[in-house]
Amino acid sequence: MPMFGDQRVELELFEAEVKKRKPADLLQFSANYFNRRLEQQRSFARRQETLASSKGIVLFPAASEQECGAAASLSLEESESGGVEKPDVAFKSPFAGDDPHSTHGSGPAAGLFKGNFDVGKEPASRSESPMCPRHDEEPKAKKANANFQPLPTNFNAERRTSVSAETFQPSSLDNWVPPHYVEKNKQQLQRLLKAVGGSFLFNKLDQDSRKLVVNALEEKKVPKGTEVIKQGDEGDFFYVVEEGTVDFYVNHHKVNTSGPGSSFGELALMYNNPRASTVIAKTDCVLWALDRLTFRKILLGSSFQKRLMYDELLKSMPILKSLTTYDRAKLADALDTELYEPGQVIIREGDVGENFYLIEYGECDVSKKGKGVINHLKSHDYFGEIALLKDLPRQATVTATKKTKVATLGKSGFQRLLGPAVDVLKLNDPTRVQESQEKDPAHA
Ligand SMILES: Nc1ncnc2c1ncn2[C@@H]1O[C@@H]2COP(=O)(O)O[C@H]2[C@H]1O
Ligand SMILES: Nc1ncnc2c1ncn2[C@@H]1O[C@@H]2COP(=O)(O)O[C@H]2[C@H]1O
């Protein structure tokens, strides 16, 4: 059976946790782990329900406090630095008190397995049931909620609809809670917003996604010299730098350095590739780590949307074959899209050149005054490089002959981001070929 993306990521996350914790009793650990995830998810859903009901909408009609019993006896979950998650939950993990790995400190640890899953046995009271409501009680529950209104199909609880959320199927985020969700205290929030609030990571997020991401970030204080990421390893976390500087090494050669406000560790999570570089703290650092699942669920579809969008195009362009995944990702960040109708001029001969163009789909004619059409371009071809390479006016006019979609790269990006591809562009310069043909028509 094919697995959905969410299921795969959830299982990968679990696998990573098993590798990290190396539990002696795998079954007990698994039961505890998934019950804690379920508990978190129910807690989050409950908060959404409160908000929905304030708008007159009943989200989970059968799971009212009365029906489920007052199971909100969860211990408070304290964050490392004092943040507190509120126990507003109608679901309690049957293992919460017994879990040797649990962060919940309350409950008597009586016996190895003290779940409420006694098959065929009615729980003493419904508040003890791990799942509430039970399916066989649904009709009664509906009756109890006479004012139940069906939800609008696009109702998204706390979530505001925004363009970025829509493109990432908002329903897939409903009731979802990050695995390391810990509400930040005021001081942490202020620090985080100062460090990363203005960065591209957060600019594209709606208010609710931003809140989820902020509360999913875990603070990591890293001493100078620490290897934060090792090239070739599997990706687990994405990092944002609050303080300090990190160095990047590819095959032991230093390739990059970055400081406060920057981020790293996204490539392995985006492309399911091994880590592309080793990252070492050059100074003592304060980093914020975001788990793989939250990264993929929220940031990938918004902040890194361009990379997804241009990935296929860039991978299939012959002139970009020499670029690494990292180079391609940086290039994608700098691209924009333009759409042209048949007959529209994209570039006019003699104009100043500002952009380089990659044809995503469509076809174009290249023409020159006094010569007419001298070339024809189609999808995955490029144009506009000569003015930028040679600092000359546009050498020809480029006109769309079919509906054409192009990705454009500005002058500064062209010089910074094309790397070794620039040499290929120089080699392929059509004016050079033309000039040599004009000088020696025998080679035409
Ligand atoms: N030149 C570079 N090549 C590869 N990775 C780099 C480079 N500079 C910075 N990085 C970052 O280093 C990270 C290592 O882990 P990832 O491959 O997940 O993501 C990588 C990038 O975010
Ligand atoms: N034979 C050609 N002569 C000039 N430009 C060409 C030719 N064939 C394709 N072109 C493209 O047309 C573009 C017009 O703008 P540029 O001069 O910046 O870059 C040019 C090339 O990318």
From TrEMBL:
GO cellular component, one term: cytosol
Protein name, per record: cAMP-dependent protein kinase regulatory subunit
Protein species of origin: Zygosaccharomyces bailii (strain CLIB 213 / ATCC 58445 / CBS 680 / BCRC 21525 / NBRC 1098 / NCYC 1416 / NRRL Y-2227)
Taxonomic lineage of the native organism: Eukaryota, Fungi, Dikarya, Ascomycota, Saccharomycotina
Subunit text: Tetramer, composed of 2 regulatory (R) and 2 catalytic (C) subunits. In the presence of cAMP it dissociates into 2 active monomeric C subunits and an R dimer.
UniProt GO BP: cellular response to starvation
CDD domains: CAP_ED, DD_R_ScPKA-like
Binding site for 3',5'-cyclic AMP 2: E385, R394
GO molecular function, one term: cAMP binding
SUPFAM superfamilies per the UniProt record, alphabetical: cAMP-binding domain-like
